[in-house]
Amino acid sequence: MSAILKQRKLFTTKIFEITDKSLKVSIKKWFNYVEDEFTFEEVTTKTTRKQSINMYAFIPGLLCLIGLVITTISHFKQEKDAS
């Protein structure tokens, strides 16, 4: 038997799951996902089970940043008389 608590903020989702032997914590942000498991006997020791970068949000964000930098540089390199 397990109990699950989901906590959502603007860009962060946390999922807490209490099982018979441990507490599982999953944290999902825009660019990464971390899943940790804590045993009840040793709360201070943590084991990271899964950690990955969310590529579906990272690649479009990177492309938008590159486009913004190129647009800004081309704007400052334009001649003053050209419209």
Architecture overview:
The chain has 1 helix and 5 strands. The protein has one helix spanning 55-77, and strands at 3-8, 13-18, 22-28, 32-39, 47-53. It has a 5-stranded antiparallel sheet, with no helix packed on it. A hairpin with a 4-residue loop joins β1 and β2. The chain is rod-shaped, with a radius of gyration of 22 Å. The N and C termini lie far apart (69 Å). The model has no long low-confidence stretch (mean pLDDT 83).
Overall geometry: rod-shaped
Structural class: alpha+beta
The major pleated sheet works out as:
5 strands, antiparallel
Order of helices and strands: EEEEEH
Q: What is the number of helical segments per DSSP (H or I, 4+ residues)?
A: 1
Rg is 22 Å
Strand content: 35-45%
Taking pLDDT < 50 over at least 5 consecutive residues as the criterion, the unreliable ranges are none
Strand line-up in the sheet with most strands: 1-2-3-4-5
Helices and strands in order:
Elements: E1 3-8, E2 13-18, E3 22-28, E4 32-39, E5 47-53, H1 55-77
Antiparallel strand pairs: 1-2, 2-3, 3-4, 4-5
In short:
By secondary structure, this protein is an alpha+beta fold. 28% of the residues lie in helices and 41% in strands. Strands 1-2-3-4-5 form a 5-stranded antiparallel sheet, with no helix packed on it.
Properties at a glance:
single chain, 83 residues, alpha+beta, five-stranded antiparallel beta sheet, 1 helix, 5 strands, 41% strand
